[in-house]
């Protein structure tokens, strides 16, 4: 027996209502039901990061979330990071630093990078943070190359554009 439910999501600033099977992932609701193709279906197991979106401002793997659990949520995809005709600084940096080859992972990389920078500014350390007290007062940890690599480790690029992705994120972090 199929159980469907109707939910409302704000996707890239637009309120959208959709009816989904209760077993539908957020990724499938976005792509298959709403036609939002910016997040990609990579591994469908939460291991590659191609489906990364910002959910209520925090990065998340949309292939691991059931859409019904996110009723009322604000979902921002890479496409939704634009402000009018203006590209987000992360988009520009990825282009300027050649941070993409095939482009499949790029929307997830960009959403993850934007979310990661917000997380790092909030102060929590990562596994490679040397001074664990640095973020205790709410100041951001220093985003060294190792910090960025660690914090972005959940996003894979099959083309190997990592040095360019790192350069793009470093530029925006400054």
Low-confidence runs: none
User: What is the subunit organization of this protein?
Assistant: single chain
| DSSP E strands, number | 5
Percent of sequence in beta strands: 15-25%
Strand order across the largest sheet: 2-1-5-3-4
Secondary-structure class = alpha+beta
Global geometry:
globular
**Average pLDDT reading:** 93
Largest sheet: 5 strands, mixed
First-to-last CA distance: 53 Å
Helix content: 25-40%
What is the string of SSEs from the N terminus onward?
Answer: EEHEEEHHHH
SS element count, helices: 5
Q: Radius of gyration, rounded?
A: 17 Å
Characterization of the model:
With 174 residues, the chain is of the alpha+beta class. Helix content is 30%, strand content 16%. It contains five helices and five strands. A five-stranded mixed β-sheet has the order 2-1-5-3-4, sandwiched between helices. Helix 2 crosses helix 5. The mean pLDDT is 93.
List the helices and strands and how they pair.
Layout: E1 4-11, E2 14-21, H1 26-33, E3 52-55, E4 58-61, E5 74-76, H2 89-96, H3 106-122, H4 145-151, H5 162-173
Parallel strand pairs: 1-5
Antiparallel strand pairs: 1-2, 3-4, 3-5
Keywords:
174 residues, alpha+beta, five-stranded mixed sheet, globular
Summarize the structure.
This protein is an alpha+beta fold and 174 residues long. The chain has helices at 26-33, 89-96, 106-122, 145-151, 162-173; strands at residues 4-11, 14-21, 52-55, 58-61, 74-76. The model has no long low-confidence stretch (mean pLDDT 93).
